[in-house]
Amino acid sequence: MTAALQAQDLAKKYGRRWALRDCTLDIPAGRVVGLVGPNGAGKSTLLKLASGQLAPTSGTVTVLGGPPADPAQLSRIGFVAQDTPTYAGLTVADHLRLGARLNPRWDSALARERIDRLGLDPGRKAGRLSGGERAQLALTLGLAKRPELLILDEPVAALDPLARRDFLRGLMEATAEHELSVLLSSHLVSDLERTCDHLIVLTDSRVRLAGEVDELLATHHRLTGPRRDPGRLPADQHVVSARHTDRQSTLIVRTGGPILDPAWSVGRLTMEDLVLAYMEQAAPAPAPVPAARPALAVLR
């Protein structure tokens, strides 16, 4: 099966500042991938490189087996930008007609059925929709392209909890029904925990962690015990983070083998624990990211 995304030494530089560097990834198709990291870590840059909106400074990226900027690939990639782009002066129906004109794989029946199920008035202008309704319209446009890979850049960041829940529920239903690969960027780890089976953590413009969620959780542990120098741990136990009091050490380690030292109390991690452990490493100053392409990039 063709990989959803492969990157080798991928990098993007704006002036003197690296927004992304040394990025090597191999994401299998059919996964729902969560992309997380602090502001300025390079998440939006990676997504724009993956959707063909930016060209790399160095390295390579392929999506669904080909270069993402290739016109033949664009119809296979859906993109929903951070501000869930829609045209305020166009009606819901106008957006669907525009999508049909711009996309050779457009599924009119899917778009109409989804708009009806959501209860969106086709004659209502997008500027008069709520934030949640605009997000659902943008998702509908992305899905009706019938992409093989759907890329979403912080699509629920501005939504209230109820609208966010409804958006993610609709996304997961569509993913299962249409067998999509999904790359979802979010600051909200709880959302990723409910939806993702593959995880990428970016910090300081580099990939710090990537892999299947179950495997990552199985190979990371919280160790609590008498205060100890982390450098004295066995070589196969990589220390991700360390906290110490006068008497106690709490470490998060990555290891492929069992923890045999009886002095340690071994605990399991949640995805949030795992993400925060890697994000606690030094964060960079925010890197400038060019504005997205015209508002209906989701439709191209």
From TrEMBL:
ABC transporter domain boundaries: 5-229
Q: Which GO terms describe its molecular function?
A: ATP binding; ATP hydrolysis activity
Report the InterPro entries cross-referenced here. AAA+_ATPase, ABC_transporter-like_ATP-bd, ABC_Transporter_VariousFunc, P-loop_NTPase
Per the record's keyword annotation, is Transport included, yes or no? yes
| SUPFAM superfamilies found in the cross-reference section | P-loop containing nucleoside triphosphate hydrolases
Q: Which UniProt keywords apply?
A: ATP-binding, Nucleotide-binding, Transport
Q: Which PANTHER family does its entry note?
A: ABC TRANSPORTER ATP-BINDING PROTEIN ALBC-RELATED (PTHR42939)
What is this protein's record name?
Answer: ABC transporter ATP-binding protein
Q: Which organism is it from?
A: [Actinomadura] parvosata subsp. kistnae
